[in-house]
Specification:
By secondary structure, the chain is an all-alpha fold. The protein contains 21 helices and 3 strands. It has a 3-stranded mixed sheet. Helix 2 packs antiparallel against helix 3, helix 12 crosses helix 13 and helix 17 crosses helix 18. The radius of gyration is 24 Å and the shape is globular.
Length: about 600
């Protein structure tokens, strides 16, 4: 939705400006505005050249025929380009831009500086997380491609044939990390290593790489379809599978023996500085420290624990807090008996939420979403659920992934909170709307500051109370368990990466304060170890959104409209928290001015 459309929706709460960090002091300058948009186009042209398969909005995206280059030389070239973009941006007089373009300026700066943070710390040396990495996403690279003609399939086959080069470049990068002591910890690799072997198949038809050829476009004749299927099978078995088998051997025989025993990234060379940078990067708060985050986490854990105790009293459970957690983790009625049953529960909850969204939102996305299981290759060491988005021109909508592995570790009482977070009004609603932004530079579409996106997801779990989604005290306890989970993250992430906590200490804190299964807790702790700082985004972002809502409610009184507030939060796409706060402050100011008139 563009700004003009938003004004019509908000009615009394007129959003008269989207300026951040100051208001234009003079009429917009055509010279400065033109320079800004020339820079935007220059960056997009560079982006399309660097990332095969990307292209301008509104035009058919080309089917990539190669993988992105990831050598140190590739990374250095991109870093140099981004530094040049930043220099060019800073030469533009921001106060001579329109209010909308001031926001575009700020968002472009945020995007470029985020990339330069990654480049500064050479994160390409460790292209892995505890549950996925550079090796897993190619297995689904055909899922978002709109195959229209035979040449599209040929391009995809050429891209598969380029996989050995891509995998080898990542191996070389990881060897740099090995030489410099910047590796994934052994304890995380214990769970991750099976995902490398799982990709290697004995038959092409058993591989997800073959998925685009199972049902091909009608525009391709039968004879050509069979020829393309033969080419695809040959590429998979003669090129892709040997490359993944070699990668699997490297991970087992070279990388694992060289992996570090420590878990805290601060124990790697330059790691303390790197971690503090990641705290700021993922929370989008420029003056935040790991120590401050740790303190906030401890306070939140205590507050949420008190609310959990109240529900235990409500259900008249006889026993200790630990006894209640054990009851929730082991009582059979709380767990689905089959993957299909779990997916059916998730789908029912999702549709129930869909019908109640108009209570809290004026603007909803056009892109639909579905529910499906986490892919088998990822499931054993994967998180409980996740959102898998798609481009607007993809032959599918977004997907809410539900992990159906280890059903006795996937309690039904947490499913409403999970669905609210990953589907709607959480990630799907927020991300799909960001792709539909109008009258904004293309780089803004889908931009994802972690604290905004993950904070919105956690805030959405809270909205389930207002939509009456939680049907039992146990489901409300499940929501608090999920909020406790995110509060514990503030404590254990900073604890492990800054204070020298052990993995066992982190697991203990989460086991003693949440009803998450031990399997989930171990999986999550390994995720925090492998992805320093990212876990902080959720609670820090949610706290800010709640704070801003409370501020707007207090200031505007009976003029506060929750639907208008939510539209305002989401109407510009993802924003760093300081820009979001400036936007809501402006909404409040304009609402008060409107009242005085």
């Amino acid at each position: 939705m563009n700004v003009r459309g938003l004004k019509r929706v908000l009615g009394a709460l007129v959003v008269a400006t989207l300026a951040f960090g100051g208001v234009a002091t003079a009429a917009p300058s055509k010279k400065e505005t033109n320079a800004l948009y020339v820079l935007f186009q220059k960056e997009r042209d560079n982006h399309y050249a660097e990332h095969p398969g990307t292209g301008p909005r509104g035009k058919p995206r080309p089917v990539a025929d190669r993988m992105t280059g990831v050598t140190p030389e590739d990374e250095a070239r991109r870093e140099a380009a981004n530094k040049a973009f930043l220099v060019e941006l800073l030469a533009i007089k921001r106060d001579r831009l329109s209010e909308d373009d001031q926001l575009n300026y700020d968002m472009f700066r945020f995007m470029i500086e985020s990339r330069l943070t990654d480049a500064k710390y050479r994160t390409w040396r460790m292209p892995l997380y505890s549950d996925s990495g550079f090796h897993t996403w190619p297995t689904r690279m055909g899922a978002s491609v709109n195959f229209r003609k035979a040449d599209d399939y040929r391009a995809y086959i050429r891209r598969m044939e380029d996989l050995p080069r891509y995998l080898e470049e990542n191996i070389v990068n990881m060897r740099v990390g090995m030489d410099e002591g910047f590796t994934m910890p052994k304890v995380v690799l214990d769970g991750l290593l099976p995902s490398f072997a799982a990709i290697v198949k004995e038959k092409a038809e058993d591989s997800t790489f073959y998925d685009p050829f199972r049902k091909m476009a009608d525009s391709v004749g039968e004879a050509e379809q069979e020829a393309l299927r033969s080419e695809a099978k040959a590429a998979i078995m003669d090129t892709v599978m040997p490359a993944y088998a070699a990668l699997n051997r490297f991970m087992k025989d070279e990388y694992y023996p060289a992996a570090r025993e420590s878990i805290g990234v601060s124990e790697t060379p330059g790691g303390a500085e790197y971690y503090e940078a990641m705290v700021r990067y993922y929370t989008t708060v420029s003056d935040l420290t790991a120590e401050k985050v740790h303190e906030i986490g401890l306070r939140e854990v205590a507050r949420i624990r008190s609310e959990m105790e109240e529900i235990i009293e409500e259900v008249e459970f006889e026993g200790s807090f630990a006894d209640f957690l054990e009851f929730l983790r082991t009582d059979e009625p709380f767990y689905a008996k089959s993957p299909k049953e779990l997916l059916m529960h998730a789908s029912y909850i999702a549709k129930k939420i869909d019908g109640r969204l108009p209570q809290l939102f004026n603007t909803l996305p056009r892109q639909p979403y579905g529910v499906e299981p986490v892919p088998d290759v990822l499931a054993p060491n994967y998180t409980t659920g996740r959102y898998s988005g798609a481009p607007l021109d993809a032959p599918r909508g977004g997907y809410y992934w539900v992990n159906t592995y280890a059903l006795d570790k996937r309690p039904l009482y947490t499913l409403p909170a999970l669905t609210l977070h990953e589907a709607v009004p959480g990630h799907h609603l927020q991300i799909a709307l960001s792709k539909e932004l109008e009258d904004v530079p293309e780089f803004r579409l889908g931009i994802y500051p972690h604290a905004f996106g993950e904070g919105w997801g956690l805030y959405s779990e809270r909205l389930g109370l207002e939509m009456d989604i939680y049907e039992t005290p146990y489901e409300r306890f499940g929501r608090l368990t999920y909020e406790m989970w995110r509060a514990c993250r503030l404590v254990v992430d900073t604890g492990m990466h800054m204070k020298g906590w052990t993995r066992a200490e982190a697991i203990k804190l989460m086991e003693e304060n949440s009803a998450l299964s031990t399997h989930n807790i171990r999986t999550e702790v390994d995720r925090y170890i492998s992805w320093p700082g990212q876990a902080l985004a959720y609670k820090m972002g949610e706290l800010k959104i709640v704070e801003l809502r409370e501020k707007a409610t207090k200031a505007l009184g009976d003029r506060f409209d929750v639907r208008a507030f939510h539209d305002a939060v989401l109407s510009s796409g993802g924003l760093p928290l300081d820009l979001l706060e400036a936007k809501i402050d402006r909404l409040i100011k304009d609402g008060l001015q409107d009242k005085s008139n």
